[in-house]
Amino acid sequence: MERVVVLGGGESGVGSAVLAKVKGFDVFLSDSGKIKDDAKATLAKWEIEYEEGGHTMEKILNANEVVKSPGIPDNVPLIVAIREKGIGIISEIEFAGRYDTAKKICITGSNGKTTTTSLIYFMLKNAGLNVGLAGNIGQSYAYQVATCNYDYYVLELSSFQLDGMYDFKADIAILMNITPDHLDRYDFKMQNYVNSKFRITRNMKEEDCFIFCEDDPVTIGQLEQIVSRAKMLPFTQKNSTPKENGAWVGDEKMYVGMNGDVDYIYLKELALQGKHNVYNSMAAAIAAKAIKIDKKVIRESLMTFKGVEHRMEKVLKIKNVLYINDSKATNVDSAWYALDSMTTPVVWIAGGKDKGNDYGPLFNLVKEKVRVLICMGVDNTKLHRDFEDKVDMIFDVLSAKEAVQKAYEVALPGETVLLSPCCASFDLFKSYEDRGRQFKDAVRAL
């Protein structure tokens, strides 16, 4: 019996272990940290052997193959040891893809991927299709492949998930944009990160579709080298020339064309407002049109979609001050879009674990829109250095509650308090979701 070892006992790892068990492998799961109680219950239910709080090398190095959770970097000693033994290491996505015959719509990008993924899923559900939602969002893809039977999957894929992908193939691949992010995991080399994102186009054939942003210089710069055989479907807000295939904007409308058949919707009718959301809506609409979803369903979905938690989520208005939770903005580009969409003076809450950020692109926006900066992180020296001369006031806090309290004290009527951190959450919080929920709880408690 072949032995599969799964590293990491989170959502992805437990799902992979269950799938390996269902497919008849000898399975062992190992986590260097503590495994949550609900995950342990799942492992017990499926009778999967596991360990936590450290790795037993002899139980790992006898594997035929290792499925690695996306959070584990490639340069840790354990991974190096596995490689030296010549044992193959793959991602959950690669593993689950082997056993999945569903059509796969896969979305990646530095920003916008969760909103776009959720919007496509919403459209497919509205069209009455039998569809699963997985990847970097929702329940583990491997667990769903083990326990469900879908005709379609909408998969949000991070660069870390793509890194361990070799034979997996998307039927429709969407690349939203590429801006510097997670460079700490890519030897601080942008090209390594770019190559990782483009892995989403691996193995694609002529009948598959590649949807990409024509306005993103990094993407366009790579197309020549990396292009697959798939059908190319660009989207743009800068070039209003009609396209036979793709999406564009003109006279306050968003147009989507497929084989010369063009539909449109007025920009003001889109449920998701703001320039970045027009990109998300375009990418989703092209994908839906590519799988021949009825145009009425596409239109109604674009008009009624509610948006994603922790992404420009309006929490409450208190004393004529609006509080917005954009905790999912974990990089500079995300925060740029958030600040760009602001129409009032801003009290900006930023900070956290810096992933090698260059804050330069934000300088002009911050000067123009931000009155007060509240730094919520363990080490805020870089934020102070870069923004001290661009805002009226700057404060340091060590919790969401403290940040909201300080914002409440300094915000003036008509202003917006924006949590758009620009950084990862791991210095003070468990995750960006934890950060966003603590922020919302603190606002509601005012």
What is the gist of this entry?
The protein has 446 residues and is α/β, with parallel strands linked by helices. The chain is 35% helix and 23% strand. The strands form four sheets. A six-stranded parallel sheet has the order 7-8-6-9-10-11, with helices on one face.
Q: How are the SSEs placed, and which strands pair?
A:
Blueprint lengths: L2 E5 L3 H12 L3 E6 L5 H9 L3 E4 L4 H4 L4 E4 L8 H8 L3 E3 L1 H6 L5 E6 L4 H14 L4 E5 L5 H7 L4 E5 L2 H5 L8 E4 L14 H9 L10 E5 L3 H10 L4 E5 L10 E5 L2 E6 L2 E6 L8 H16 L4 H10 L8 E6 L2 E5 L6 H9 L5 E5 L12 H7 E7 L4 H7 L5 E5 L2 H11 L5 E4 L12 H13 L2
Parallel strand pairs: 1-2, 1-4, 2-3, 4-5, 6-8, 6-9, 7-8, 9-10, 10-11, 16-20, 17-18, 17-20, 18-19
Antiparallel strand pairs: 12-13, 13-14, 15-16
Account of the 3D structure:
The protein has a six-stranded parallel beta sheet, covered by helices on one side. Strands 15-16-20-17-18-19 form a six-stranded mixed beta sheet, with helices on both faces. It folds into three domains: 3-90, NAD(P)-binding Rossmann-like Domain (Rossmann fold, 3-Layer(aba) Sandwich), CATH 3.40.50; 96-304, UDP-N-acetylmuramoyl-L-alanine:D-glutamate ligase (3-Layer(aba) Sandwich); 313-444, Mur ligase, C-terminal domain (Protein-Tyrosine Phosphatase, Chain A, Alpha-Beta Complex). It is built from 17 helices and 20 strands. With 446 residues, the chain is of the alpha/beta class. Helix 7 (141-147) links the parallel strand 7 and strand 8.
